[in-house]
């Protein structure tokens, strides 16, 4: 049973470009969470999605960031017009979302570097 | 709002020494508590968890007990190995959506 998959593992962008990060949850998981980890810091919640729905985006910056989890295919975190402050590791986690089985399993992360 | 505070690192120990990493939390309701471990360049791996007061989570020789009276979830191991060198994160699940609130992480370095 494959774990959570994220790609790319490393992404380099110049200021003003777009970054697109992909996350495939574990098989059977329909709940996806995105977190951001700034250098030498803990992870901060960004957004929680279920298939075709954004459930909680309270941690998302108001501008330039968006997320989706379509009916088919991976979840996408999109950052438009990147700035140097967006450089971070972005982690995706998935869960079954059932009561008593809420444990989140994390992917290896995408490390974004903005030049 | 909900928060997690864990001891600052780095923690440097010799092999076979005892380990304690303190973690306290502030939360409304009754959160589940977790310890995750992050090895260099990798994602987070669930180490152990506890879902209610007085529960003890354990895995790979690590233990932590959910103490509601002291709002704590300290991580302990009786004898550390070099391979335990990593960053350890304490976390709680918050609210109906189970989003995780993380502490800042504690780096552990174990020397032979």
Strands, helices and their partners?
The complex is a heterodimer of chains A (115) and B (112).
Chain A: E1 5-7, E2 10-13, E3 19-24, E4 31-37, E5 43-50, E6 53-56, E7 65-68, E8 75-79, E9 88-95, E10 105-106, E11 110-114
Parallel strand pairs in A: 2-11
Antiparallel strand pairs in A: 1-3, 3-8, 4-5, 4-9, 5-6, 7-8, 9-10, 9-11
Chain B: E1 3-6, E2 11-14, E3 19-21, E4 23-26, E5 33-38, E6 44-50, E7 56-59, E8 62-65, E9 75-77, E10 86-94, E11 99-102, E12 106-111
N-C termini distance of chain B: 41 Å
**N-to-C SSE series of chain A?**
EEEEEEEEEEE
- Count every helix of chain B, treating DSSP H or I runs of 4 or more residues as helices: 0
Biggest sheet of chain A, open or closed, and with what strands and sense?
7 strands, mixed
Order of helices and strands of chain B: EEEEEEEEEEEE
Query: What portion of residues of chain A belong to β-strands?
Result: over 45%
- Average pLDDT figure of chain A: 92
User: N- to C-terminal separation of chain A?
Assistant: 37 Å
Question: Which geometry of chain A do the CA atoms define?
Answer: globular
Q: Fraction of residues of chain A in helices?
A: under 10%
Which two protein chains have the largest interface (Cβ within 8 Å of the partner's Cβ), and how many residues from each? A-B, 26 and 21 residues
CA gyration radius of chain A, whole angstroms: 13 Å
Low-confidence parts of chain A, pLDDT < 50 over ≥5 residues?
none
Counting helices, strands and paired strands, the structural category of chain A is mainly beta
Mean pLDDT of chain B: 93
Model description:
The complex is a heterodimer of chains A (115) and B (112). Helix content of chain A is 0%, strand content 49%. Chain A contains no helices and 11 strands. In chain A, strands 2, 4, 5, 6, 9, 10 and 11 form a 7-stranded mixed beta sheet that branches. Chain A is globular, with a radius of gyration of 13 Å. The mean pLDDT of chain A is 92. Chain B has strands spanning 3-6, 11-14, 19-21, 23-26, 33-38, 44-50, 56-59, 62-65, 75-77, 86-94, 99-102, 106-111. The chains are: A mainly beta (115), B mainly beta (112). The interface between A and B is medium-sized, with 26 and 21 residues.
